[in-house]
């Protein structure tokens, strides 16, 4: 039997944990901080004060957005599930797989649009106003809104596919849908990782092949030393939009590539860029993208299996109202579970980043340039070099700047 009240209890439990985490996040973010003596060895007081102010405002905005989104999602689904406890079988014509898939697509598209509008004020504040106020953004508000619209459009496409496939699997395979949905998630994640460098990233930024002969020689030397074939290093023209500098590894299979911001190349020495390159090659060498996908898939299976256990069997015949409630409850349950499991994902990401850091040092043997590169990256990104311990534990995907420097210096 379709147990709407059990799902509602599960959602309330997850919501309580999520709001508890967020309340602690907001309290910690608002507490006054002083930089440590260790941080003062590498950064001046002016930078540390500015970076902490920027971080505090960003943390508070992020926490408030989380509260707003989750409360609205809860009230969106709670009424439907309360009614579900009273009338678990509804009159009406049974819904087929094709119509159910269409319903799932429309429902998840509507939810995605709703959430994008809820998040817009917070995202505009953090992504545009704060970045502009602290001298990090070079975008106009119209350009920022265009990027936000593109991002929302890509998200809606993913939601449409997720909604339609989930509905089809639930209707066609009512007993085994959790396993099949996990397989679909795995295949979809691999597909998205494959097309991201070719389809998604170019929609937001311009990329050109790395042409600097000295850097190309460094790439060949590093990849040769690592025993790897690295045939795609691109430069992203980030300076049109931001003063931040960065680098990343993306893609899977034939779309693997290392991307360097042009701001990174212009603001760092050759040895520092070499260290950053070696770090990204570490991600390539250890297959971190694939490992991340596998970890996410395992987490997805746990969440979906828990939901299936709580929900019980769906009523027969299944009508559109039943399916809508089920899909909406699954979306909220999965979203809350994902947030509650954030520390696990953050921990794994920090492990990957630390492994890539150690690899870059082993490959180059240049701890001095590693330290100076970390200092330059923190300065250019106005990074919080010593985030509050709870925030670091909960959401920090990289070791902190001070931790990375400490590791490089063997302390």
TrEMBL record:
Residues annotated as binding Zn(2+): 279, 283, 353
Cofactor: record remark: Binds 1 zinc ion per subunit.
Domain Peptidase M48, residue spans: 210-409
Keywords, alphabetical: Hydrolase, Membrane, Metal-binding, Metalloprotease, Protease, Transmembrane, Transmembrane helix, Zinc
Residue ranges constituting the CAAX prenyl protease 1 N-terminal domain according to the UniProt record: 52-206
Pfam families attached to this UniProt entry: Peptidase_M48 (PF01435), Peptidase_M48_N (PF16491)
Parts of the chain that traverse the membrane: 12-31, 57-79, 100-122, 153-171, 177-196, 293-314, 326-348
Active site location: 280, 357 (proton donor)
GO biological process: CAAX-box protein processing
GO molecular function, one term: metalloendopeptidase activity
Cofactor: Zn(2+)
Family matches, as InterPro entries: CAXX_Prtase_1, Peptidase_M48, Peptidase_M48_N
Family indicated by similarity: Belongs to the peptidase M48 family.
Protein name as it appears in the record: M48 family metallopeptidase
Native source species: Candidatus Fermentithermobacillus carboniphilus
Lineage summary: Bacteria, Bacillati, Bacillota, Candidatus Fermentithermobacillia, Candidatus Fermentithermobacillales
